[in-house]
Amino acid sequence: xxxxxxxxDAQLVTSIARYSEVALAEAYRRHGGAVFGLAxxxxxxxxxxxxxxxxxxxxxWNQPDRFDAARGSLRSFLLAQAHGRAVxxxxxxxxxxxxxxxxxxxxxxxxxxxxxxxxxxxxxxQVSGAMGELPEEERRAIELAYFDGHTYREVAQLLDQxxxxxxxxxxxxxxxxxxxxxDAGVRGVDA
Amino acid sequence: xxxxxxxxxxxxxxxxxxDGDECTELEQHLETCPRCRAELDSxxxxxxxxGNSVEPLPExxxxxxxxxxxxxxxxxxxxxxxxxxxxxxSPFRPAxxxxxxxxxxxxxxxxxxxxxAAAVAIVLGIGLVRADNRVSNLQAGQAAPSSTVAAxxxxxxxxxxxxxxxxxxxxxxxxxxxSGQGYLVSxxxxxxxxxxxxxxWAIEGNQPISLGLLGGSPSQAGFTMAxxxxxxxxxxxxxxxxxxxxxxxxxxxxxxx
Lengths: 191, 257
Description:
The structure holds 2 protein chains of 2 kinds. Helix content of chain A is 70%, strand content 0%. Chain A is mainly α. Chain A has 2 domains: 1-93, RNA polymerase sigma factor, region 2, helix turn helix motif (Rna Polymerase Sigma Factor, Chain: A); 95-186, Winged helix-like DNA-binding domain superfamily/Winged helix DNA-binding domain (Arc Repressor Mutant, subunit A, Orthogonal Bundle), CATH 1.10.10.10. In chain A, helix 2 (21-43) runs antiparallel to helix 3, helix 2 crosses helix 4 and helix 7 (136-146) crosses helix 9. In chain A, 49% of the residues are buried. Mean pLDDT of chain A is 81; it is low at 105-119. Chain B has helices at residues 3-14, 20-32, 34-50, 61-68, 101-110, 117-122, 146-154, and strands at residues 159-164, 170-176, 181-187, 196-204, 207-215, 222-224, 233-240, 251-256. Chain B has a 4-stranded antiparallel β-sheet with strand order 1-2-3-6. By secondary structure, chain B is an alpha+beta fold. Chain B folds into 2 domains: 3-50, no CATH class; 73-256, no CATH class. Chain B has 7 helices and 8 strands. Chains A and B meet through helix 2, helix 3, helix 4, helix 6 and helix 7 of A and helix 1, helix 3, helix 4 and helix 5 of B.
């Protein structure tokens, strides 16, 4: 029997489906930091980020079949779940309006720091490079949506741009990112 | 929603930036459009790559997750000692148990690293971790009555291992038989606060392998080192209740095998 840390992510999920708590612990060890990191970035609050992290791994435990290895990596799956949950929390926040104004300024002014403590520095470099290559308006639209949890319609308001324009910029920027990452050999992004 | 409209929205959707009716309509389209699903999957990978900045995990967060897995009732009694079973199967399932996941989770948890400290304190057997499977496969935790320990101390080929603190004070002694079966012989480890537990590790080539939880005030415990385990040291750390996959606390006691 292979060691737990030698199992692939897909094998881990299979073990989780068979109630192996150790497999869940290993999934947490591999991906918990990324889940927590993204939640914290979106929520701007470590305590809320802990709640989201807990929820994401409990959900993986209770509904492991929601992960389909044929559709992407476990890390991306967990990050998508964490992001969705974090965004829900942000959108239900009562201090939303104040936050919007603050975030818009911060996002517009903030130095590009995508690369904090990234587990895979090689990929982080590629991501950072690809983001840096994006046209400024595409990058800002993506960051406001992804890291600050705004809908694309809200992003349009914040940037005072037509909704259709922002929708297209996000789409084009994402496709540009995908092409750049695929060129760089980052797995999973090629359609 | 037309395919073109849906396709235009996928970038925003991959960022969770579509809401309301538009989101519902897009999701309906996705149900029926494999092309859009494939496009979405690849864009989600892109989003994942962008969001992939790892933060150090807060201490104790895993324990909070682990203790929520069984969803124990407040007044539930501590579970019986862990039974060892191969990973991937429900370690033991009382016949009366329904097939619901929740019940099985509870049972499963009893036999794994997430045994709550309160439970562990009365547990006589502790978890086995096979070298080939890390912190898994809690198997038949053995009670270790003093007569058993005494017999082990007289068994041929036994090894008595003393675990000392950094100031060379003796903290604990364990006896290990040639079979890999081991028992805690004695311990002067101070009682831990509620919510903490001692955890025993085999150190093999700088790699810690959990041998199981000793509880907050260890007295009797049995453990097993699988045949392939050839540790150079045994170590004890204090960990959050439920134990850790890898040691998070400093080594409190250490002994050469």
